[in-house]
Amino acid sequence: KNGALSFEEVGEKTGAGTGACCGARCKCKIEELIEENK
Predict the structure, then answer these.
(1) Which of 10, 15, 12 is nearest to 35 (CA)?
(2) In three state form, how does the secondary structure of the chain look?
(3) Domain residues for 32?
(4) Residue 27 contacts by C-beta under 8 Å, 6 or more apart in sequence?
(5) What is the pLDDT of residue 33?
(6) Does residue 16 sit within a domain?
(7) Is residue 26 in some structural domain?
(8) Per the database record, which ranges form the BFD-like [2Fe-2S]-binding domain (predicted)?
């Protein structure tokens, strides 16, 4: 989102990774999306 290049940047902007699982379920998918859209 907004040109983020890492999971951490996405998390800062969207709150991803702050749930009870701490990103265990979404981190891989977000990293795949970042890689696909570079």
Answers:
(1) 10
(2) CCCCCCHHHHHHHHCCCCCCCCCCCCHHHHHHHHHHCC
(3) 7-36
(4) 7, 17
(5) 94
(6) yes
(7) yes
(8) 2-36
